[in-house]
Amino acid sequence: MKWWYIALVVCLLVAAFSPLASSSPDGLERVAEDKGFLVLAQDAPFQLIADYAFPWIENEAVATILAGLIGTLILFGVVYGVAWLVKSRRQDPAM
Amino acid sequence: MHIPDGFLSIATVATTYAVSAGGVGNAVRIANRKLGEKQVPLMGVLAAFIFAAQMLNFPIAGGTSGHLIGAALAAILLGPWASVLIMSCVLLAQSLVFQDGGLLALGANIFNMGIVASFSGYYLYRLAVSLLGDGRRGRLIGGFVGAWGSVFLASIFCAIELAVSGASPIAAVLPAMAGLHALIGIGEGLITGAALSLVLVARPDLLQLQKI
């Protein structure tokens, strides 16, 4: 078994813990609120899986876990693909 | 630290997009020359880990939370240019699919959390390792220092962009951002150290890969 199968499963496990995350505003959001410029924030022109909650699912924890698992798989696939496309075609014995 | 749309002026949006586009283009060019077969799955795994870990906000003081950026970890394992590529993909997906970070602010977010965080994290780690040696202790301390510095510096650049955009005066936004992220950086340092020590136990050879 390739090592990164296990590593990917670990990443998916990390994503599955996402409902436990703190829901307090993050550093930038806190500063924006305190300094009074949070009102400038504009909503995105379209929404897919906004706020890391998969739409049409009532249960908040399930919606978050599903969004996390989908995102983790998307990022693995996209970056694996990008890296495969840009990687050097030259055979390098040092690697 | 994902900037939403509305905070940045058009001039800041244009400048940060131009700089980040140049940075990402250079990252592709360098990866095209140096990236080998062996790094490809590690790139994918790091992107997956960074996305997943960024969802796990941890509480810091005063009803505020922070989350991992991950650029320092990626840069330590793969090198700063590979890290710029990974972070750009993570930030692009977060903006397009999860509406975290604005589309117009994407250039600034890639600049702060991709370029600034990757290079500062990488060179602070290298500096610490050159002073403390490349044993386990030196690498873990280096990882903590690099990770902390990457968050701190990224927040300073973020504050400067907000100030030049007119969102808030620099005297207000800079100390506020730097102060909170000095705390969030401790979390980044601990997570980066934990991830590095896991790699040192499970796959120490991954730390020996050529840096990109």
Beta-strand content of chain B: under 5%
Strand content of chain A: under 5%
- Biggest sheet character of chain A: none
Strand numbers in spatial order across the main sheet of chain B: 1-2
What distance separates the N and C termini of chain B? Answer: 25 Å
By helix and strand content of chain A, what is the structural category? mainly alpha
Shape descriptor of chain B: globular
**Helix-strand topology string of chain A:** HHH
What share of residues of chain A is helical? Answer: 40-55%
Summarize the amount of helix of chain B as a percent range. Answer: over 70%
Number of domains of chain B: 1
Describe the fold and architecture.
The complex is a heterodimer of chains A (95) and B (212). Chain A has helices at residues 3-16, 27-34, 60-86. Chain A has 95 residues and is mostly helical. Chain A has a domain at 50-88. In chain A, helix 1 packs antiparallel against helix 3. Chain A starts with a helix and ends in a 9-residue tail after the last helix. Chain B is mostly helical and 212 residues long. Chain B has one domain: Arp2/3 complex 21 kDa subunit ARPC3, CATH 1.10.1760.20. Chain B has a two-stranded antiparallel ribbon with strand order 1-2. Chain B starts with 9 loop residues before the first helix and ends in a 10-residue tail after the last helix. The interface between A and B is large, with 62 and 72 residues.
